[in-house]
C-alpha cells in the first residue's frame, strides 16, 4: 500500500512540476498536487502509509537534483506536514464525506493553511541556511511555497476523497445537466483565461452552478480544471497574465486559485449539509406521521371485551336498575 502511495505521489509531483514558475530566481509550483495526494492517502488508509509519502517525496527531489544532506530535511518536512494535517483533522472530527461545513473549514484552516506552514518554512528556511537564497527573498518565496502546498490540499484532496467514497444515485436528467455544464465549462473557461481583458471572474458562476447542483464532486472538478488551465496560461505569460512581472503573475494566480478553491469547497459543503438536514427533517416527519396514524387507529378501534365501554353498554342496550 505504501508503494502505491509513493507511485501516486511521484506521478502527482511530476504533473505539478509542469506548471512551475520562477519567483526570485527560485522555482515554485502554484499548485503542488502531492500534498493533496498525501493528505487524502492518510485520511483513507491511515498513518501507516507515511513511508510511501517519504519515498515519493525522495523520488521527486532526486528527479530534479542530486540527493544530498539537505534532501533529508526536505523529505522529512514534506512527510511531517501531511501527517500533522491528518492528526489535526482527526482530532477535529473530520468526516471524509465532507457533508458538513465544519469539515470544509477544518480542511481549509487545519489541513491546508495550518499544516502546510511546516513544509514551506522548512523548505525555504533550508534554502536560506545553505546560502542559495538571500534573507530578503525569504517571504516572497515562502508565500509561493506555502500557497502551492495549500492549493494541493484544497484542490486535490477533496476530489480524491469524493472519488473514493460511495457513489450516489445519478438520474438521466442529471447526466444531461452534467454534460451541459461540462460543455459550457470547456467553452467558457478557456475564453475567460485566454482573454487579455482579464475575464477570470466568468469562472465563478460555473463554480457556483457546479456546487449547487453537483456538490463537492462537480465543484472541485470545475475548480481544479480552472486552476490547472489558469496555471499553464500563467507559466506562458499569455491571456490574463500578459505583460506582468513574475511576482505579479504569481500573486494574481495565487489569488485566483485560492478564491476558486475556497468558493468550490465551502459552498459545496454548505449545500451538502443543508441537503442532509432536509433529508433528516423529512425522515423525522415521516416517522412522526406513521406514529400519529398508529395512535389514531388505536383510538378509533373498538375496545376489547371487559373494558369500561363494554361494561357500560351490555348487549341488548338495557342496564339493570
TrEMBL record:
Give positions of region: Disordered. 296-321
Q: Any idea where this protein resides?
A: Cell membrane
Any keyword Transcription?
A: no
Domain called MASE1: residue spans:
1-275
Which terms in the GO cellular component ontology are assigned? plasma membrane
Q: Which UniProt keywords apply?
A: Cell membrane, Membrane, Transmembrane, Transmembrane helix
Topology with respect to the bilayer: Multi-pass membrane protein
> Which residues span the membrane?
37-64, 70-89, 101-123, 143-166, 178-208, 214-232
Tell me the InterPro entries matching this sequence. MASE1
Where on the tree of life does the source sit, at the highest rank? Bacteria
Protein name (record): Membrane protein
Amino acid at each position: 500500500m505504501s508503494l502505491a502511495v509513493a507511485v501516486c505521489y511521484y506521478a502527482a509531483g511530476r504533473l505539478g512540476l509542469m506548471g512551475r514558475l520562477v519567483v526570485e530566481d527560485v522555482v515554485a509550483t502554484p499548485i503542488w498536487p502531492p500534498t493533496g495526494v498525501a493528505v487524502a492517502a492518510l485520511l483513507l488508509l491511515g498513518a501507516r502509509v507515511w513511508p510511501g509519502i517519504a519515498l515519493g517525496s525522495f523520488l521527486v527531489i532526486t528527479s530534479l537534483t542530486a540527493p544530498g544532506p539537505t534532501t533529508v530535511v526536505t523529505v522529512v518536512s514534506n512527510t511531517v506536514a501531511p501527517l500533522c494535517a491528518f492528526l489535526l483533522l482527526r482530532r477535529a472530527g473530520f468526516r471524509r464525506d465532507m457533508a458538513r461545513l465544519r469539515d470544509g473549514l477544518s480542511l481549509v484552516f487545519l489541513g491546508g493553511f495550518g499544516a502546510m506552514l511546516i513544509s514551506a518554512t522548512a523548505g525555504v528556511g533550508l534554502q536560506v541556511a545553505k546560502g542559495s537564497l538571500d534573507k530578503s527573498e525569504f517571504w516572497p518565496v515562502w508565500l509561493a511555497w506555502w500557497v502551492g502546498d495549500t492549493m494541493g490540499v484544497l484542490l486535490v484532496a477533496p476530489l480524491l476523497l469524493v472519488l473514493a467514497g460511495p457513489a450516489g444515485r445519478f438520474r438521466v436528467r442529471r447526466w444531461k445537466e452534467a454534460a451541459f455544464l461540462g460543455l459550457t465549462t470547456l467553452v467558457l473557461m478557456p475564453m475567460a483565461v485566454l482573454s487579455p481583458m482579464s475575464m477570470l471572474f466568468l469562472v465563478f458562476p460555473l463554480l457556483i452552478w457546479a456546487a449547487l447542483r453537483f456538490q463537492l464532486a462537480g465543484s472541485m472538478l470545475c475548480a481544479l480544471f480552472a486552476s490547472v488551465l489558469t496555471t499553464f496560461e500563467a507559466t506562458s505569460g499569455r491571456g490574463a497574465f500578459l505583460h506582468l512581472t513574475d511576482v505579479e503573475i504569481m500573486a494574481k494566480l495565487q489569488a485566483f486559485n485560492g478564491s476558486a478553491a475556497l468558493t468550490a469547497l465551502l459552498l459545496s459543503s454548505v449545500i451538502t449539509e443543508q441537503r442532509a438536514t432536509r433529508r433528516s427533517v423529512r425522515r423525522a416527519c415521516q416517522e412522526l406521521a406513521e406514529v400519529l396514524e398508529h395512535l389514531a387507529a388505536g383510538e378509533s378501534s373498538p375496545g376489547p371485551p371487559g373494558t369500561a365501554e363494554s361494561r357500560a353498554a351490555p348487549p341488548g342496550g338495557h342496564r339493570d336498575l
